[in-house]
Amino acid sequence: MIYVARRAASSLLVLLAVSLIAFLALGSAPGDAATALAGDSASAAQLADLRADLGLDRAPLARYGAFLEGLVTRWDLGSSLVGGRPVIELVLERLPYTIGLALAAVTLAAALGGLGGTLAALRSGTLLDTMVMAGAALGVAIPTFWSGLLLILLFSLHLRWLPVTGADGPAHLILPAVTLALPTAAAVARLVRSGLLDVLGTDYVRTAHAKGLTPHRVVVGHVLRNGLVPVTSVLGLQLGHLLGGAFIVETIFGWPGLGRLAVQAIFDRDEPVVLGAVLVAATMYLLVNLLVDVAHGWLDPRVGREAI
Amino acid sequence: MALPTLMISSARTRCARLLAVRGVRPDVCEDAYDGGRRCERRWFRHTSMSLIVGGLIVALFLFTAVAAPVVTSFAPDQVRAGPRLAPPSQTHPFGTDTLGRDMFSRVLFGAAIAVRAAVVGMGIAALLGIPPGLLAGYRGGWLDRLLSRLIDVWLAFPGLLLALVVVARLGPTLTNAIIAVGLLGAPGFYRLARGLALSARRMAYVEAATAVGCSEGRVLVRHILPNLTSSLVVFATMRAGTAILAVGGLSFVGLGAQPPSPEWGALLAAGRSHMDTAPWLAVYPGLSMTFTVVGLNLLGDGLRDLWNDISCPQKRYD
Amino acid sequence: MSHRIRLALVLIVLVIVAAGCAPKVQPDAQPTQVADATTAPAITTASASDMPEATAVASSATPVSGGTLVRAMTSEPATIDPQGAPSSGLSLVLPYLFDTLVVRDVDNRLLPALAEKWEVASDGKTISMTLRSGVTFHDGSPLTADAVRLTFERFKQKGVKSPIYGGIQQIAGIEVGDDLTVRFSFKEPAANFWSTISMPYAGILSPASMEKAATDEQAQLVGTGPFILGEWQAGQSITLLRNEAYAWGSELTENRGAPHLEQFVFKVIPDAATQLAALQAGEVDVIFINNPDHLAKLKQESSIRLEEAVLNSLIYLGFNTAKAPFDDPKVRQALSYAVNKDEILELALGGVGIRAFAPLPPTLPGFDASLAQHELVYDPARAQALLAEAGFTGGSDAAWTREGQALTGVLLTSNRAPNDAIASLLQSQLKAIGVPVEIQQLDSKAVMEATTAGKFDLLLWRYDWNDPDALNIYLGSDRVGSTNRVAYSNPTVDALLAQGARELDEAGRSGLYVEAQKLILADAPWQPLYVPLDVVAMSARVDGARVGYMGRLLLNDARVAR
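^ Those are the sequences you sent over. The predicted structure of the assembly is below.
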């Protein structure tokens, strides 16, 4: 418990640092929200009026200070400079979609990868093993911006099995989740296979065999716990990453997630939205990391000790 | 750091005397000076198919990158080298694009850019990540905690946003995209180096070297690093593949290579709107990218298996 | 070891199979496609005013009243406030929810909308309008002169993010006569007034909703348009419902009452390729086409109807007239002669566009076909001769140098779709006369920052503006350092433009702008490249929908087949 509390405290510091970096980096990019909004035809007078209206005429430190103050005292992330809507609203609208896609992708990756890796390990040396490993090698290497388009071409255009875009129901979730899951599933499959192969040959498994436990129980009971550590690492990393939004897949499939919100905000130089999106993504990532480390500690006490 | 006066006489005898005093087995001294040397001289016996195929693919990739100007009959940015959007033919093995430029030439010259992305991107990540990682893992303590916190901040920042912001600040050029990718890849090297240094710290030969009085820097450079190179090289090979994909991704969203550069991600972006009418625009760059990354991964796998087979098991003090 | 051999073999086979399976497509009959597209402008003006085009493609099923039309939208607006920040999403939605005082048709004629008739005072400083009676807002309140007054006063206070903010600020005062009479007064006659108030941004808002919106951020602004705002699913879709009470449509459509359609849905699909796929799959009925190859493909499909609209926009190559050597008109002219516009139209745009020779597009008053004689038409030999005249030595195989300085530069442009292809072509055309140029594609804000600071050599840029005072905005010397990015300054031109801004007589105004354009073309701060076309693709199930001014889709007559 103290461990969790310490991690929470240092996470807050990390979040502060992240928000500061995001603020400074965005501020140093050329152009600000006024240029973005007013467009090509705005006179210098209009730009000045606009900057005053948006509060951009304050010094950077004052703006950051105001943002922090709002966040800490009122849980208020400010309002979008472009539309005026509260950032929290914008983020909360997109959050369920991002979480849904991330969870679906990671679950799919775990299932596919676990199944494939286990099969490959148990049937090591056969054609099945080779096919699974070949698939895994490709899966890791294919760029998602390519595979997503290929999937649309095949499943939505030619076969007409699945809808092209939108997020209205579970059918819409399939293609984006598969696209995102493929590289992770491939990595998981390789890890599971090598982990299983390593452990299947060790002494204590042979001993368990000798003791008369069936192969199935051997696998589940003794092997999984050990092999799961690197797998949970990879899955956790991917989950944390996806919870920040998956921009490319969201664009291709029209998925209303945080990724598109954040990227559009950067192009619009919409400070409050960028800060809000970055903070949310970072918080998710740290949370998932914490959970993964706790899981590691539970799965393998030796690793657990070292992590602390 | 000044060398202790003990270092003046023969190192080996000194080591044996010191360790005998401390009650440590003298054969550890062997490890102190031979640490990490290959046990197996005949390394070529242990080459696997992964290594060979991966090596061949990577060799082909490098050859293409270097030989592109010689092998192709058109310049990559030569407009109207052929009819607009022509499908693959004898004169244009990969077809032509919307401006009539030869795709075969563009894809091959794209390989040269991918080499740059891979090497420089991965190199920057390694340079930025390995030294702090080694230090953190070896020293431990407050340095480790501080650096790990910094890396946490780095990792908590959503990847694409970080690259976007870096490129927005520096300007969207290929070089800046590569730099951004290098920055993104540094934490991976940091963690690897740190983990390796942590476990190496407990290896016998390091204990011995420190016991003998070697300075920390010397221990790091002469004893730990050579042992870690195998793992680092394997990791670097895989990261090279990731770097190619990442730079491609940035160019795909318009933040990397400038036109008319034939970087593979940019080619994919241009070809994406023609996937149904002119699929060759996107297929060949996508295949090339996938093929190259598969090759790099296979090479990495093969190298790792090779090193596992031929290196000596290191004794640990646990 | 053997399984590794198999692994490798399987991989190699997979890759080869994948490569071989790349679908080979029969080459389109490209030359005829291009020819078709370049004759498009003739069709456009015809289709706008006569209906046969629409009824000719009759679907087999009989269109009925009711039904839902679905349109793809690249991005949704932040909020639906006509006076707020502009966006492509907002422009799509506004014309259906809000009405303006006047509207324009494709021939640029001004037609009454909420204003039935108007009178301009002889000194041009007062305009009084009589509003149509019996008009109600969606919230039930009636349209009164007061509503108009409050709308424009709110605009002056809160409309700072709007592109027509400048135009609105020119209105000095608004007075209300009786319930249906409004008087606008100006310090100086404002010739762009009609352009300003005909934009959807100038939609009239209900006072009750304005009051609510002032305090409650969630409150929605309400207009008098043919559709009412229904459900808005953030990030996904916006649904509009028929306004049953609508009875005041303009002459733009035959049906002046409530639309036949029951529902009009905007679906958010950010990616153009995905939009096309959705259209072909029947998930949406209407999309914009920006990609000439998508266009060529759709032309072959008989179930999709295409309509083109010429936009009030211009894409041009600009020179930084404040920076040497581009401050020398001969250099600018020489580089202009090197540009092959036909090649750009054919290769980069697939023929979808109109070659431009004047700083104003053909749709705006002030455009005159006779200006074509001043065009600097593609002539690389003349380009090189001019450079030699300007004192450069060198040639197409060596760099041109003058006083030790080589002639080279950076071509700045934004990362909007065809710009990379156009920039690549310009680069190769300039290289052909010996001027090497480097391309820099930045996002549009970065480009605007760089250009207002004068940090560029060549600029590939675009403007969109619906009034000839575009010349004032982009080429007037009082706008140097802000919107006059090329820093062009010519006092004679300024005088003509200033007069033109105040001249309310259309013919007189046109004449002034034509004179100004002649001078501008001689000075060559811009080489106009082309005028873009908007193409709207509709599925066969849609009948009666037409493309109007600036590509807006007129839906009052539209029906969908079941």
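Chain B touches chain C through 43 residues (CB under 8 Å). Residues 103-139 of chain B form the longest helix (37 residues).

Shout if you want it in another format.
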